Amino acid sequence: MKNYYVYIMASSSGTLYTGVTDDLERRVFEHKQKLVPGFSSKYNVNRLVYYEETSDIKEALNREKQIKGWLRVKKVELITSRNPKWQDLSEGWEQPRK
User: Fold this and answer.
1) d(Cα 3, Cα 9) in Å, to the nearest integer?
2) What fold is seen in the domain 4-82?
């Protein structure tokens, strides 16, 4: 069974990025190494501060869309509810396997 992850990355200045992936370790690595041009590399969004997991891709995509539609204050509340110190949840992860 395949799992999907809705996740939020943050920059040191507090910029937030919400995304969805089927390989969280690989995707976080791509953000940290700025391997994909765009918003996250432009704004140095490189700390995983929140994620949730589901086996339903439609549910994951709907949840991503829902979170992206929220005001910043609601996203901050979501992150703080599970990660009050905004620690990088990917700390200590190895480089993903190819």
Assistant:
1) 19
2) GIY-YIG endonuclease (3.40.1440)
